[in-house]
Amino acid sequence: MTKLYQLLLFITFAIGILAQFWLQKNQLTVSASQHQTEFVQLVHQYKDYQGDGQQLFATINAIQPLQFFQYITDLNPQQNYTFGELHQSQHWLQHLLPVKITQDIQLSNARLQLSADTRSWYGVIETNIMTQTLMLLAMYLFLVISLLWLQSRIKNSIAYSVTYMSQLIADNYPPLQASKLGGECKPLAKALEQLRLDIKAHHKNLVSKHEQLNQESLQDTITGFGNRQQFTQTLAQLTSAGTSQLGTLALVKATELGAINQLYGRQAGDEYLVTISKTIKHSLREFSFSQCFRISSADFAMFIPDLSIKDAPRIFTSLKHQFDDYQQQLGSDSVAYMGIVPFTEQSNPASLLALADSAISIAQTLGPNQFHTLEHQDDLEEQGDNRWQKAIESLLDHRNIEFYQQSIQPCRHNVDMYRELLARFYNSNGKLLPTTTVFAMAERHGKNLEMDKLIVQMVIERLIKDPLLTGWYGVNISGNSVLQPDFVAWLKDTLNRYPEIAARLVIEVNEIGIQKNLVSSAHFVKAVHSAGARVSIERFGMGFTSFKFFQELRPDFVKLDGSFSNQVHLDSSNRFFIKMIVDIAKRLNVKIIATGVEVQEEKLALEQLLVDGLQGYYIAKPLALDKTP
Question: Distance between CA atoms of 15 and 559, rounded to whole angstroms?
Fold first, then answer.
């Protein structure tokens, strides 16, 4: 019970008592008025009285008890009589309810003054007031005690409800004790029971979603394989002390992902990865306990328990044939390469992965979709490096390079565009080598300058030799080469010796390589321009180059990274970026080319943004150089 409620109850009780006083006062006033009238009538009956005063007192007092009586006559002083006191001690209620019935009359030969005795009235009133007050007090006490009992009961119910809800919050779901929530708390009992069921169901749903999210957090969204985090956990478990697990670990490198993303678009790249994952699953269908992971954008891993390294070639030969079939369907240089190593409980995870990576490096030198097994870690890095060093040297010595071309479509008739040349590399046996790995290994072994020089020389020779190859052609060289003064001097000298061919060449360099040294890059661009050739900065927008680079380098073409074309018709941020680049480039007479165009909606949106050229799978597919695009 709140203090306010107690105060209200007390005020109500006080008002009840005051109401009784007011009622008794009204009744007393009415009664006094009636008695006053009767008293006057009684006294007027003796207005001609001339007898003894005491006798008159006895007569009137018998009819109406008197408090005061005084009779004074002029005829006979012995007949005078006085009784009582006019202001004698009164009843205590007279102070609260003052009432007087008096009469002062002049008789023919005397003066009569009297006052009625009202003490009996106040006694009755006192009795009535006390009785009613006691009744009100009894009711007040009853209400107070009842409300205190009810308050205690409600407090207990609330305390139980709070405790019960705390248990629900703590994921404890005891049955509800309805007996503790009876009476007016029954709706609360129903609500708590429903709350228990709802929270229990919600918690169960959260647990289910949490488990699902945990599963998804360990799963690659494209292939459905486990991701790198799950792979790391599994690798640690398999190689931890106390396990007796034996088997084979295989790494699969999808080397064509970058080229497919750039030439055919990201959707085609995802389809490529999905096809590889399905092929891997199909090849391992007889190994029910095998586990597959996608550990990076283009790398897969497989744990195959109880498969010995000697039996592994049977499985991976079948997988290679499936990759070969997919390569024919895809029309690519290769599909993937595989490195196979054994694992035991004594295997060190880092060493195991290094061994498998070296096995892949060796497989890449053997031809498309090859696999290689390594059983020991002795000199594994040197073995892989030596293989690649020999492969690069053989490639340079025998000039095992072929070129494909991909056209760039101009967006307006008054804009000239070129065809980009794509190099393909082969080993001494005529097997195709992965392009990205070849460039990486050439740089690792210090052969990148020789590689770029050979590519430029072979392109010039091919254009001189074949008069049917007309127009401009783009040649890719590495960003590190353009920063080397010796290479820039060689390139300028070579282009000057073939001015007609130089006028048809566009030297393409990656933006990330250019931004390493803007001064050297500017010198490279000036050297190429002085020889009559043109410069194109590709994959623009992925580095941190400021727009000042346009003014300092002044390239002829800027090829935007393919990510800016992806869903450009739906992405306002990419449209804003492209429009800003186009506005700046036009002031400096730089042509902007959008790459990675996959669908018609992207093409239309890019044309509206006023780019100068379009390149991508939707525009033109790569073709052999001897074929007319």
Answer: 94
What is the mean predicted confidence (pLDDT) over 450-478?
A: 93
Per-residue pLDDT tens digits for 12-69: 778 877 777 777 777 767 777 777 777 777 778 877 777 888 888 888 888 878 878 8
Name the residue among 565, 560, 571, 617 with its Cα closest to residue 271: 617
Q: What pLDDT does 242 receive?
A: 57
Q: Who's near 317: CB < 8 A, 6+ residues apart? A: 371
Distance from C-alpha of 33 to C-alpha of 559, rounded to nearest angstrom = 117
Q: According to the per-residue pLDDT averaged within each range, which of 127-136, 588-597, 618-627 is highest?
A: 588-597
Half-sphere exposure (Cβ direction) of 233: Cα atoms closer than 13 Å: 11
Asked if 422 and 398 touch (Cβ cutoff 8 Å), the reply is no
Taking each helix axis from N to C end, the angle separating 380-398 and 448-465, rounded to the nearest 10 degrees, works out to 30
What secondary structure letter does DSSP report for 335? -
Angle at 368 between CA 420 and CA 337, to 5 degrees: 105
Residue (of 343, 238, 228) closest to 292 by Cα position: 228
**Cβ proximity of 117 and 83 under 8 Å:** no
Cα–Cα nearest to 438, from 328, 499, 364 = 364
Q: Which residue spans within 391-533 are E strands per DSSP?
A: 401-407, 409-410, 418-426, 432-433, 472-476, 505-510
If residue 614 lies in a helix (H) or strand (E), which one and from where to where?
A: strand 613-614
**40: left (phi > 0), else alpha (psi -120 to 50), else beta?**
alpha
End-to-end CA distance of the chain: 93
Inter-residue contact 305 to 345 (CB < 8 Å)? no
User: What gap in Å lies between CA 254 and CA 274, rounded to an integer?
Assistant: 11
pLDDT tens profile 206-229? 877 777 776 667 788 888 888 888
Cβ proximity of 105 and 47 under 8 Å: yes
- How far are the Cα atoms of 1, 241, 316, 388, 451 from residue 363, in angstroms, in the given order? 86, 31, 12, 10, 21
Contact criterion met (CB below 8 Å) for 593 and 559? yes
Calpha distance 288→305 (Å, rounded)? 9
pLDDT in tens, 187-205: 877 887 788 788 888 878 8
pTM of the predicted protein model: 0.56
**Measured distance CA(596)–CA(593) in Å, rounded:** 10
**DSSP state at residue 226:** B
DSSP H/E element including 293: strand 291-294
Cα–Cα distance, 549 to 584 (Å, whole number): 11
SS3 (DSSP) at 560: strand
- Which pLDDT value is given to residue 628? 57
The domains located in the chain, with CATH, are 3-123 (no CATH), 178-214 (no CATH), 228-378 (3.30.70.270), 395-624 (3.20.20.450)
Q: What is the pLDDT of residues 540-574, one digit of tens each?
A: 887 655 566 777 788 999 999 888 888 899 989 89
Alpha-carbon distance 220 to 330, whole Å?
23
Output 109 or 510, whichever has higher pLDDT: 510
